[in-house]
Design goal:
The model has no long low-confidence stretch (mean pLDDT 96). The two termini are 24 Å apart. Strand 15 and strand 16 form a beta hairpin. It contains 12 helices and 16 strands. The protein has 2 domains: 228 residues, Isopropylmalate Dehydrogenase, CATH 3.40.718.10; 143 residues, Isopropylmalate Dehydrogenase. It is globular, with a radius of gyration of 20 Å. The strands form 4 sheets. The chain has a 10-stranded mixed sheet, with helices on both faces. The protein has a two-stranded antiparallel sheet with strand order 4-5. It is α/β, with parallel strands linked by helices and 379 residues long. It is 41% helix and 20% strand. Bound molecules: 3-isopropylmalic acid and manganese (II) ion. The site of 3-isopropylmalic acid (IPM) has 7 residues, from loops.
Length: 379
């Protein structure tokens, strides 16, 4: 059932997070006006800079707000002081030091049950990419269009590191429960996409026992529950070259957490770079959307970063909310936001430095405003 109002928690975070998220929230509000959808947005300060001042990563009660939200939008976390990443102090609030901002990214993923991290690798027409530092068009847009599904709650992301006499050990934890639900998500997505009806399992099962388990569960669930979907396999090292050489082979790709982290960034290089790559952390009850790039401290505060990844994160959020609440207004809004971004990309004029070079670059805020203008013109 469509809701009267959708409650969105926005976590701008660190570095370029606030700038790109501010553009994305403007686009959300314009879409709300145009499609008559009420969004109640609450921004919560958080991340490493917040930790550096308060010794806590966000104000008390913030997690409860995330739990109540219809959806969460995250900018980026990761703060530097004197060129060094800020980690939490032992025992404050975790036993072991963690990236300050851990709660917003990792704990939200784990505690809200956001088990599938959905990261489309999709090249829009007109987008050039940097090979040898020169902007060139090399791939055909229709040949780069697959989705990476990254397991999002375990693997090497447990937050646990133990000392041993000669060093430290971080466990790789792979459970049946988490693997079954994420591979099921991937198979269902391959069905919904209706393209190649294929899911590729990417792992390092030739050497890591826990990855062998991941692959076994993938094979078992796929064979038993999805006879209409083809099962495909790749080791992650080989996959990294195939996703560059032969992206058209892939439809839906699923892998353990760290594998998914790496191959989604690598895939982004074939689709215009991290400035265009968005992702959704999706569970059965909650979801959090984010640009997959980091906080890029060196670009922070310069109104320079590409806001399109954050805007496409809004598009993914609208789409997810539309399906969850059977609200066609949200689906229309999602389509139009994507179309607005695609139109700007194919015109190739109002773009940030990463897509057009420093000389002709538009500011982050100018690109955000141009997306809003396109949206209004199309409505
Ligand atoms: C991502 C990021 C995070 C991750 C970091 C910031 C903890 O790289 O969302 O891909 O590794 O998951
Ligand atoms: Mn990453």
């Amino acid at each position: 059932m469509p809701k009267q109002s959708y409650y969105i928690v926005a976590l701008p975070g660190d570095g370029i997070g606030p700038e790109v998220l501010s553009c994305a929230l403007d686009v959300l509000s314009t879409a709300g006006q145009l499609f008559r959808i009420d969004f109640q947005v609450e921004e919560i300060p958080c991340g490493g800079h917040y930790y550096a001042e308060h010794e806590t990563e966000w104000p008390e009660g913030s997690f409860e707000k995330c739990e109540k939200a219809d959806a969460i939008l995250l900018g980026a976390v990761g703060h530097e002081v004197d060129g060094k990443t800020v980690f939490t102090k032992p025992g404050k609030p975790y036993p072991e030091p963690q990236l300050a901002g851990f709660a917003q990214v990792i704990l939200n993923r784990q505690k809200l049950g956001l088990y599938a991290n959905v990261r489309p690798v999709k090249l829009y027409p007109g987008v050039k990419h940097k090979i040898h530092g020169v902007l060139k068009q090399v791939w055909d847009a229709d040949k780069v269009d697959y989705v990476v599904i990254r397991e999002n709650t375990e693997d090497a992301y447990t937050g646990e590191t133990n000392s041993i006499p000669d060093g430290q050990v971080t466990p790789i934890r792979i459970t049946r429960t988490a693997t079954e639900r994420v591979v099921r998500y991937a198979f269902n997505l391959a069905r919904r996409r209706g393209k190649q009806h294929k899911v590729t399992c990417v792992d390092k099962s030739n050497i890591i026992g826990a990855h062998r388990f991941f692959r076994d569960v993938f094979r078992e669930v796929g064979g038993r529950e999805f006879p209409d979907i083809k099962l495909d396999y790749a080791y992650v090292d080989a996959f990294c070259q195939w996703q560059i050489r032969n992206p058209e082979w892939y439809d839906v790709v699923v892998g353990p957490n760290l594998v998914g982290d790496i191959i989604s960034d690598n895939g982004a290089t074939t689709a215009g770079g991290l400035g265009l790559a968005a992702g959704g952390n999706i569970g059965d009850e909650h979801a959090m959307f984010e640009p997959i790039h980091g906080s890029a401290p060196k670009h922070a505060g310069k109104d320079k970063a590409n806001p399109m990844a954050a805007i496409l994160a809004v598009q993914m959020m609208l789409d997810w909310l539309g399906t969850r609440h059977e609200d066609s207004r949200l689906h229309r809004a999602a389509q139009q936001v994507e179309a607005a971004v695609a139109a700007l990309l194919s015109e190739g004029k109002t773009l940030t430095y990463d897509l057009i070079g420093e000389e002709q670059a538009a500011r982050c805020s100018e690109v955000g405003a141009a997306v809003e203008e396109k949206l209004r013109a199309m409505a």
